[in-house]
Structure formats: structure tokens, C-alpha cells
């Protein structure tokens, strides 16, 4: 598991205020386990526990949930087939895809995001593994809480992206998408005076689709400098995401390898379950993978990548913090700005969750706060020499 958030005090909710959750999984053990976890939370409730995607589609309008936890592999109608049918019936439904950590399920989960799912969560191979089950519980409850609250406010949306791969259906956005907005009116810092020599990107919830959209439009930047990305994701998922980023950008992209030299023209993605740091080796910048404890309850985490880059590039760093829960990237962003570099944050309107970028904005470290579709053009201009 790649991301977990600190538990926060949750105010006691009246029944009408609770996030309504529909659990859809063909395993009675998994359904029962998830239902017990949700039932123990004061701000959410299980309104249905169903065995198949067909049951979910047929009963959706009667149940009217805010959030659906949707298994991928089920009889009658699997999760990826049920997803678009559910979103046609309820466009603002938050769907969290749940699957075991296999390459096939990782591919399906990422495709589900392009079809309108809000997020995904890997299920532990065995519910008897206490640590894995507890991490799954913690992450799932946080995702339901944050995304469910947005759903009740009517502000959940997804972002469109380039095609996932040749032969795949063209991604569609079935949940409402926020219209482009003007940059947020917040206090901003000036961009750093030094020409950036690297682009660092951090993201979490909603990040895969945002990354696909972004890398497809920053070819001139990638050709000039290396691009390093930390996306909160488990193993296998990052392998698949790197392949999709390569296709979207039409540039080489792969998971970072311990000890490899960092070169312009390439995208390096932190592998699931490892922190990706940058170190100097002679005249070269190289990748160092760290198997240490989670940082900000995440592994990989953005802050280690951001902070370690300063020892290599000092103030010649451009960093971007995209949609995601929590505050990962904010402390590293502070360090980058203190060294003379710059931070751009995605705005709230186009973020699936405005946790990470919002933390950076509230910390007063951003040179720009932009809708997703304005970040790439800004980066192209900055790397061409315009730092106004």
C-alpha cells in the first residue's frame, strides 16, 4: 500500500449527514470486513452490501449511495463493465475500484480512472495478514471520507487524459469535470531567478489522470531536462503507470532504478514501495532508492524526492504539486523555495482532492496556482526562459 493519512478527529454525524457507502464484492468475507469497518465510523454508513456488479447497477437508484467500493473480478457483471453503467445512472457517484495486486488488475484499475472512477485501492492478498489488512482499512476509510464528503458537496470530478494505450478505448470522463478557471487569487512568490535544470512532480489521489494530461503537453520541457515523478502508488501499479506515461508523452518513461544516471529527455517514476531520492555521483545526478519507513505516511513520498534534489541542483529546480490527499510535498516544497527554486500547485477547482496542493498554497510557497490545463503551457514558458 502506498498512501495513508493521519487519522483526524471526526465530528459525530447525524444519520442524514453520513456518507452512504455501497460495498460490491463477490467475497462474503471482504464484504463483511469492509462493512464492519465502515459501520465503526461515525460519519459513514453501509447502505448496501452486494455480490455482483449487476446487483449494483439494478439497485443503484433505490439505494442512492454517495460512494461505491467496487471489486473488479465478479460474476455476472465485473467491475470494469459495471462502472460506466453506474455512472450513467448517477453521474456524481464516487467509485473506488478495489483489486488485488496483479498486473492485470493494475491495468484495469488505471483504465477505470479514465472511465470515471474517482480512485482505486489494492486489496491485501490475505485478510489474515494483520498489517496489510490494517493498512487497507486505514486507506479505504480515508478515501471514503475525503471523496464522500466532496460528493455530498457536489464537487467531485475527474480529469480527462490521453488514450491509455493503442488498442484501448479512448478514455472518457463520465463524472462532471470542472470548467477551466482563472488562477486562484492567493499570495504568491516570484519564480526563482535561476534557469530550472529539472522538473519534479508530486501527486496522489487523482494523480494518474492529471499526470497523463500534463506529460502529453510538456514535450519541449522533457526534451530539455529530466522529469522525476512521485505518485502515491503501490508496486505493479507504478510499473503500469510508467508505461502509460511513456505512451502519453512519446518520451522514455520508466520506474527509477537504484544507481542509474539521470538524463534529460526522460521521465523517472518512483517505484511503488520505495522512496526515490536524488544523489550526486561525480558529475552526474543519480537515483537512490530508499527502503526506509514511510514519510508523511506514504511510500513512495514526495518530500524525500523534493528535498534530496536540492543537494544536486540547488535553486535550479521547478516543482509541481498536483491533486492528492494529505500534505506530502509541502515541506519539501518549502525547502526548494528556500534554496531558490519554485513551486507550482494545481488549483482546487480541477483537483480531485485539494490536500497536497492546498497545503502548499496555504504555506505560501507557490509561484503559481493554476488549473490543470494551464500548468503545461506555463511550464513550457518557464523552461523557455519566461519566469514572470
From TrEMBL:
Name of the protein: Protein-glutamate methylesterase/protein-glutamine glutaminase
Question: Sorted alphabetically, which SMART domains does this protein's record hold?
Answer: REC
Span list, region Disordered: 151-171
Say yes or no: keyword Cytoplasm present. yes
Q: GO biological process: what's one of them? A: chemotaxis
UniProt lists the gene as cheB
Q: How is it modified after translation?
A: Phosphorylated by CheA. Phosphorylation of the N-terminal regulatory domain activates the methylesterase activity.
Q: What is its EC number?
A: 3.1.1.61, 3.5.1.44
Q: Would you say which domain of life the source belongs to?
A: Bacteria
Q: Which family does it belong to?
A: Belongs to the CheB family.
Which reaction equations make up its catalytic activity? Answer: L-glutaminyl-[protein] + H2O = L-glutamyl-[protein] + NH4(+); [protein]-L-glutamate 5-O-methyl ester + H2O = L-glutamyl-[protein] + methanol + H(+)
User: Cross-referenced InterPro entries, in alphabetical order?
Assistant: CheB-like, CheB_C, CheY-like_superfamily, Sig_transdc_resp-reg_Me-estase, Sig_transdc_resp-reg_receiver
Q: What is known of its domains?
A: Contains a C-terminal catalytic domain, and an N-terminal region which modulates catalytic activity.
Q: Write out the GO MF terms.
A: phosphorelay response regulator activity; protein-glutamate methylesterase activity; protein-glutamine glutaminase activity
GO CC terms: cytoplasm
Q: What organism does the record attribute this protein to?
A: Bradyrhizobium macuxiense
Q: What is the role of this chain?
A: Involved in chemotaxis. Part of a chemotaxis signal transduction system that modulates chemotaxis in response to various stimuli. Catalyzes the demethylation of specific methylglutamate residues introduced into the chemoreceptors (methyl-accepting chemotaxis proteins or MCP) by CheR. Also mediates the irreversible deamidation of specific glutamine residues to glutamic acid.
Q: Where is the CheB-type methylesterase domain?
A: 192-386
Taxonomy-wise, where does this protein's organism fall, top ranks first?
Bacteria, Pseudomonadati, Pseudomonadota, Alphaproteobacteria, Hyphomicrobiales
Location in or out of the cell: Cytoplasm
Query: Where does the record place the catalytic residues?
Result: 204, 232, 328
Positions carrying 4-aspartylphosphate: 71
- Domain named Response regulatory: which ranges? 20-138
- Give the UniProt keywords, A-Z: Chemotaxis, Cytoplasm, Hydrolase, Phosphoprotein
Amino acid at each position: 500500500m502506498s498512501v495513508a493519512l493521519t487519522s483526524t478527529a471526526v465530528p459525530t454525524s447525524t444519520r442524514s449527514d453520513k456518507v452512504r457507502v455501497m460495498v460490491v464484492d463477490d467475497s462474503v468475507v471482504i464484504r463483511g470486513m469492509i462493512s464492519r469497518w465502515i459501520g465503526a465510523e461515525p460519519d459513514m454508513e453501509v447502505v448496501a452490501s452486494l455480490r455482483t456488479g449487476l446487483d449494483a447497477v439494478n439497485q443503484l437508484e433505490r439505494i442512492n449511495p454517495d460512494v461505491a467500493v467496487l471489486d473488479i473480478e465478479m460474476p455476472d457483471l465485473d467491475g470494469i463493465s459495471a462502472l460506466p453503467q453506474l455512472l450513467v445512472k448517477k453521474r456524481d457517484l464516487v467509485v473506488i475500484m478495489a483489486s488485488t495486486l496483479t498486473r492485470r488488475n493494475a491495468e484495469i484499475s488505471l483504465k477505470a480512472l479514465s472511465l470515471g472512477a474517482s480512485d482505486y485501492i489494492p486489496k491485501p492478498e490475505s485478510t489474515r495478514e494483520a498489517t496489510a489488512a490494517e493498512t487497507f482499512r486505514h486507506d479505504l476509510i480515508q478515501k471514503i471520507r475525503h471523496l464522500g464528503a466532496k460528493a455530498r458537496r457536489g464537487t467531485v470530478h475527474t480529469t480527462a487524459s490521453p488514450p491509455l494505450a493503442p488498442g484501448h478505448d479512448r478514455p472518457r470522463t463520465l463524472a462532471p469535470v470542472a470548467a477551466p478557471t482563472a488562477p486562484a487569487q492567493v499570495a504568491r512568490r516570484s519564480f526563482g531567478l535561476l534557469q530550472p535544470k529539472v522538473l519534479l512532480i508530486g501527486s496522489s489521489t487523482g494523480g494518474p489522470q492529471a499526470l497523463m494530461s500534463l506529460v502529453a503537453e510538456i514535450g519541449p520541457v522533457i526534451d530539455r531536462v529530466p522529469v522525476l515523478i512521485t505518485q502515491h502508488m503501490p508496486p505493479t501499479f507504478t510499473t503500469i503507470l510508467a508505461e502509460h506515461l511513456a505512451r502519453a508523452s512519446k518520451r522514455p518513461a520508466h520506474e527509477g532504478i537504484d544507481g542509474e544516471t539521470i538524463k534529460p529527455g526522460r521521465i523517472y517514476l518512483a517505484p511503488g514501495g520505495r522512496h526515490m531520492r536524488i544523489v550526486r555521483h561525480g558529475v552526474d545526478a543519480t537515483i537512490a532508492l530508499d527502503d526506509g519507513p514511510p514519510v508523511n505516511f506514504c511510500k513512495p513520498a514526495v518530500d524525500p524526492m523534493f528535498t534530496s534534489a536540492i543537494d544536486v541542483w540547488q535553486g535550479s529546480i521547478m516543482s509541481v504539486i498536483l491533486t492528492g490527499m494529505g500534505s506530502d510535498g509541502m515541506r519539501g516544497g518549502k525547502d526548494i523555495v528556500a534554496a531558490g527554486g519554485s513551486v507550482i500547485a494545481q488549483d482546487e477547482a480541477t483537483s480531485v482532492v485539494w490536500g497536497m496542493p492546498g497545503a502548499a498554497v496555504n504555506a505560501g510557497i507557490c509561484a503559481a496556482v493554476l488549473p490543470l490545463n494551464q500548468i503545461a503551457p506555463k511550464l513550457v514558458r518557464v523552461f523557455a526562459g519566461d519566469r514572470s
